[in-house]
Every structure is written in structure tokens, then in C-alpha cells.
Design goal:
Chain A: Keywords: Dioxygenase, Oxidoreductase. Chain A is mainly β. Helices cover 4% and strands 24% of the residues of chain A. In chain A, strands 2, 5, 10, 11 and 12 form a 5-stranded mixed β-sheet that branches. Chain B contains 3 helices and 10 strands.
Chain lengths: 234, 183
């Protein structure tokens, strides 16, 4: 077969599927070791999705007749691979709770108020430089049933495709200095040295006067693991 | 060099961001040759997983990809509207379904297959598997299938349940645990 790109497996990055402190992993993590699948054509290709974006998909504060409650924020950054290359024209999907920490979802039943002006879902496509940006409100923290007095730190769910099946990633973006990090088994499931990669930074330069605060977060997908220098000597 | 962002679970409310009205249609409804591939997603107790997502990616019926990284070159699909990609959130009974065309075989002896990602509350990272199709002669030479003991190989092969229907259940854990793949 013709030579093709492959993607390196990152070390000390992803959480173990068996993470007992997050109780729902108990019956849902595979117990057999995964079988190594060499990356072939189906793995090095992937859906190149764009053109399915609605006019307000990038602005979660403008999807209804009125403005949602809460602190308006811009969330922006770049999608890169671990070789440092931007990932252009790739779909970024987000979803989140409202300012009170409640999801507009039938199964979220904790008695914080729903917001009729906030659905909490959005999508954007990265620019030619891999940049993305959307406007939303800062989500609230919320309790969950994992253990006594369990609270999730405020977060926004992110879904990314990259350009290959192998690069697919779903993760969560957190906000700086959240005191709940120390108590959250989902955040803490990640190897300690990699946790801060999930935390956005306050970005004064991107704030919008009289309108919105801003947070910056770059997302890094798997790359080839080879710098151009190494490629030249391969 | 930047370091890879860690994975996190989709959580219980994944439909807010990941459910597409036409996500299960890899080809437009009514496309000749459409097959339905469906199954249930189960946990280690044999209970359905109602807050999961199954995504599929595949070659077109000619075994080609409309993608620049295919070293044979990108080829636009000959079937109008063929996406190659499908996604379906599981329903309260853990059931998922996609409607697609049978992919072609690939170089290197690879039998027709779908690459599959499974996401769920309680899965901190996706798990990856494949779906092959019962009765395909190429299955005998497929390098992945050949590498597996027979008892586990069957967890990747969808049963033909009708003229245009295939079924494969996915077991995250337990006696019938699906073979999951490290890509």
C-alpha cells in the first residue's frame, strides 16, 4: 500500500476508562485490553464536515427572542495538532448548562431555573488558520449524584473532528481557578500533568467593551508526532 | 510542540450538542441499495445505555474516500449525497441505527467495514470498534478479523437480519464484551 500519514498516540494525556471515583465508569469501561489497529485508510481519513452551520449557531445568546440570563462571554482559540499545525475548516460543536447550572434537557431535573432564552448548543467551523470563536453565557456549576455533595466545576462540552477518524475528540473546557477542581472526579480522572490543558485563560484583549468578557482556549488534536525536521530524515 | 488536549466524557446531556436531525442518514433517504445497520448499546450488567452516541465512518461502495489524505487520491462519491459519516444517539432502550450503503473492500485485504466511535456518560474517552458484515467473502482475509480468536471475532460482525438490514449489539463490558480497538 502507498505510504500515508499516521497519528501518534499521546502519553499521559487521556483519563483511564476505569476511573472508580467517577462511579458511572464502573459498568461502562471495557475490561479487555484494546486490540491494536494499525492506522489504515479508514483511520487516516474522516468526515470533513462544514456547511451545516445555522446563522446563530455561533452565538448562543441569540437563539431565542430575548437575551439569556448570566454573564455574557466570548470563548475563542485555535484548533491545532500536536505538530503545531492549525486544523482549518473543521467542525467544533459545543453544549453547556445555563447560568444557573441547569441543562435544557428533559433528564436534568435538579431544581435550578431553566432559561427560556437559552438552549445551550452551538457549532462553528474553524477558519483557515484553525481559529474558532463563539459567544455564550458563563455556565454555572451544578450538583450531581456521584457522591455526597458532589458538584461539577463550570464547563463547556466540546466535540472536535480534525481531519481524520483517529483525531476525533470530545472534551470539556473549564474556567480558570475553579475551586471545584479539587473535588471533581471527572476533571481529576486526567493525569495530573495534563489537567491544566483543559482550563481556559481569561483574555482581556478579546473582551468586548460594554458587552462580554472573554476566555481563550486552544485545543490540540493528535498529530503525526514528527516535526518537519524528523520527516526529512525519516 | 503543543500537547494533546485530554478527553472527557460526553456526560448525560450529550444530545444538546451532538444530536443531528438527519445524523443517521449517511445517504439521502430513498437512495437505492440503502441498508439499515442497527443494534443496542449495553453496559456490563446487560442494561441498555440510553445516554450514548454511536458514530460511523466508512468508504463509499467503491472503496474510496473523498479525502485528500487517501494516498490513492480523493474521489467524489458516485452516489449523490453520500457522506460516509453517520451518528445516532441511543434511545431510552439503548438502540441506535444508521442508514447507509455497504462500503467497498479496501487495499491490503481489508473487508468492507465501518469504523465506529462510541461515546457515553461514564466513558471518559470514546471507545473505537469496527462493524463488518456477515456473509462477505472478504472477511476471510481481513487482517484485523484474522488476528482475533474466533469467539471474539464475532463481536465485530453484524448479522444479516433482512434483505437490507444488519444488526450488531455493542457490549461495553462483560461476557460478550465487544472487541475495542486502539487506533
Amino acid at each position: 500500500m502507498l505510504a500515508h500519514v499516521t497519528y501518534a498516540l499521546p502519553r499521559d494525556t487521556h483519563p483511564p476508562l476505569d476511573s472508580p471515583e467517577y462511579r458511572s465508569t464502573g459498568l461502562r469501561h471495557p475490561t479487555q485490553p484494546p486490540v491494536l489497529l494499525p492506522q489504515r485508510l479508514t483511520e487516516i481519513t474522516g468526515p470533513l464536515l462544514h456547511g451545516q452551520i445555522g446563522p446563530n449557531d455561533h452565538d448562543l445568546t441569540r437563539q431565542h427572542g430575548g437575551e439569556p440570563q448570566g454573564q455574557r462571554i466570548v470563548v475563542h482559540g485555535r484548533v491545532l495538532d500536536s505538530d503545531g499545525r492549525p486544523v482549518p475548516d473543521t467542525l467544533v460543536e459545543v453544549w453547556q448548562a445555563n447560568a444557573a447550572g441547569r441543562y435544557a434537557h428533559a433528564r436534568d431535573t435538579w431544581p435550578a431555573p431553566l432559561d427560556p432564552n437559552f438552549s445551550g448548543g452551538g457549532r462553528v467551523v474553524t477558519s483557515s488558520l484553525g481559529e474558532y470563536s463563539f459567544t455564550t453565557i458563563k455556565p454555572g456549576a451544578y450538583p450531581w449524584g456521584n457522591h455526597h455533595n458532589a458538584w461539577r466545576p463550570a464547563h463547556i462540552h466540546f466535540s472536535l473532528f480534525g481531519r481524520a477518524f483517529t483525531q476525533r475528540l470530545v472534551t470539556q473546557m473549564y474556567f480558570p481557578d475553579d475551586p471545584l477542581f479539587a473535588y471533581d472526579p471527572i476533571y481529576r480522572s486526567v493525569p495530573e500533568g495534563a489537567r491544566t490543558r483543559m482550563v481556559s485563560a481569561f483574555d482581556m484583549d478579546a473582551t468586548q467593551p460594554d458587552r462580554a468578557l472573554a476566555f481563550r482556549w486552544d485545543i490540540v488534536l493528535r498529530g503525526s508526532g514528527q516535526t518537519p525536521f524528523e520527516d526529512a530524515h525519516a | 510542540m503543543p500537547e494533546v488536549t485530554p478527553s472527557q466524557t460526553v456526560g448525560p446531556f450529550l444530545t444538546l450538542g451532538l444530536e443531528w436531525p438527519k445524523g443517521a442518514d449517511v445517504v439521502p433517504p430513498g437512495t437505492p441499495g440503502t441498508i439499515t445497520v442497527s443494534g443496542y448499546l449495553y453496559d456490563g450488567a446487560g442494561d441498555p445505555v440510553p445516554d450514548g452516541l454511536v458514530e460511523t465512518w466508512q468508504a463509499d461502495p467503491d472503496g474510496r474516500f473523498d479525502h485528500p489524505d487517501d494516498p490513492r487520491g480523493a474521489v467524489a462519491p458516485t452516489v449523490p449525497g453520500f457522506l460516509g459519516f453517520g451518528r445516532c444517539c441511543t434511545d431510552p432502550e439503548g438502540r441506535w441505527e444508521i442508514r447507509t450503503l455497504l462500503p467497498g473492500a479496501l487495499p491490503g485485504g481489508e473487508a468492507p467495514h465501518l469504523d465506529v466511535s462510541v461515546f457515553a456518560r461514564g466513558l471518559l474517552d470514546r471507545v473505537v470498534t469496527r462493524i463488518y458484515f456477515a456473509g462477505r467473502p472478504e472477511n476471510a482475509t481481513d487482517p484485523l478479523l484474522a488476528s482475533l480468536p474466533a469467539v471474539r471475532r464475532d463481536t465485530l460482525v453484524a448479522e444479516k437480519t433482512g434483505p437490507e438490514e444488519y444488526r450488531l449489539d455493542i457490549h461495553l463490558q462483560g461476557d460478550r464484551e465487544t472487541v475495542f480497538l486502539q487506533v
